[in-house]
Amino acid sequence: MLHYSFSTIFMAFMSSSVIIIIMYLFFLNGNTLSFIGKKLFTFFIGLVLLRLLLPYEFPFTKTIPLPDALSRIISAIRHPWFAFGNIKCSLWSVFQIIWMAGIVFHLFRCFRGHRQTRLYLLKYGRDCTKAPEYKALLDDICRRYHKPNPFRILKLANQNIPVIFYSRQPYIILPETMDFSPDDLYFVLHHEVLHYFHHHFIIQGFFGLISIVYWWLPVRCLFQKQFDLLLEICVDASITRGEPRVTENYMECLLNIKKFDFNHSSLRDNVLEKNSVFHLQIENYTLKKRFQLMMAESNRWRTALIRILTATFVVIIYLLSHLYVLESSHTPLTITQETNSFTPENTYFIQTEDSCYEVYFYNIFIETITDYAYYPNGIKIYNKKGEFINET
After folding, report:
1. Helix 200-213 and helix 30-53: axis angle, to 10°?
2. CA pair distance 250, 193, nearest whole angstrom
3. Which of 25, 197, 366, 386 has its CA 20 to 30 A from that of 123?
4. Rounded to whole angstroms, how far apart are CA atoms 225 and 21?
5. pLDDT at residue 339 greater than cutoff 50
6. Element (H, E) at 389
7. What are the residues whose beta carbons fall under 8 Å from the beta carbon of 45, sequence distance 6 or more?
8. Alpha helices of 4-79 — where are they, by DSSP H?
9. Ramachandran region of residue 146, left (φ > 0), alpha (ψ -120 to 50) or beta?
10. Helix or strand or coil: residue 81?
11. Pairing of β 87-89 and β 357-361
């Protein structure tokens, strides 16, 4: 049976945050990032997403009691201060209500932003799909991957970086005022086409849904930057394939776009910046990391050792977060003054619908727990109707 509670959310939050911070530290050092590699980094991101998808306690999970200082805080968060009928209100229940409201709000904003972007492009974009210089180049790129050409090319004023947007079909948006050389145009179109062929829209959509669900996660912005950069790195590797001449020309293309963006920064369009999924990320930080990875050369044995140690450490963090859950062990002072322990005579449990247990001491609600292993044997367990169902 899977159990969901404040403690399981706390474990998912803590373990995911630790892994994200570890990945961020790798991002700060370009050499270390090159040792890790995009495949292992993809694996780490997958672990974070999987952990956030499974904020539950499993049957094999063991409970570890927290120190009294932390237990007091958690008990205060979970303790119901008042009730409306059978609904008990605590800081935890208030947080869950705010959490759900935030999910609805962010979903609405996401769908509204997507719709506004599509209408904006159709209204202000100039369709150049059938222009020979674009159509021939796109057809050639698509044939290279044995795919049909579903793309539409739009030129947009007040836009200074290439963007790809998906709505029923992929739109590649190019700056109206930028003149691309043949090589630069090839790399730009190739880059955006690969985002589509690599199914990055589906991957990004799944990631976006997780981000919406965990909109309150403090390290979410760090994770978003790492995830976006990873997708760019995957495309970079597919285009360059480690060929020095191609890598040099591709990097020159990125620098040309960076120069154009810098000289026309006042033209940047906020509509596309907020709502587009992919564009050539040319901020100084991300561009530097991408260049470092494209040019990286490292010792094979040293790289293998770093990858094995890092992967082992991250997997251990992930597994421990499922094997153990930290639970509050605090007992209110008024109770400890009356008795030194819970007994079958003064304590009973009420099992909730999600298979947790509400602890009652002298008919006073104490806390909700997921495991009664730390309580003595013989304590009776009742259901919500007051019917006896079991005992510890």
Report:
1. 60
2. 15
3. 197
4. 12
5. no
6. strand 388-391
7. 23, 223, 226, 227, 230
8. 6-28, 30-53, 68-78
9. left
10. coil
11. unpaired
Torsion angle (degrees, nearest 10) of CA 216, 219, 221, 225: -150
Lowest mean pLDDT among 37-46, 113-122, 127-136, 151-160: 37-46
Burial letters for 226-253: b for 16+ Cβ neighbours within 10 Å, e otherwise? Answer: bbbbbbbbbbbbebbeeeeeebebbbeb
- Characterise 14 by phi-psi region: left (phi > 0), alpha (psi -120 to 50), beta (else): alpha
* Interatomic CA distance for residues 166 and 114, integer angstroms: 9
**Angle, helix 6-28 to helix 300-323, in steps of 10 degrees:** 170
* pTM score of the predicted model: 0.74
Structure tokens at 152: 């539409």
Give, as one character, the DSSP assignment of residue 3: B
How far apart are the C-alpha atoms of 312 and 388, rounded to whole Å?
A: 46
Kindly report, residue by residue over 18-68, the tens digit of the pLDDT: 998 888 887 776 566 666 666 787 888 889 989 998 888 888 888 888 777
Contacts 24+ apart (CB under 8 A), 136-140: 137/185, 137/186, 137/189, 138/189, 138/193
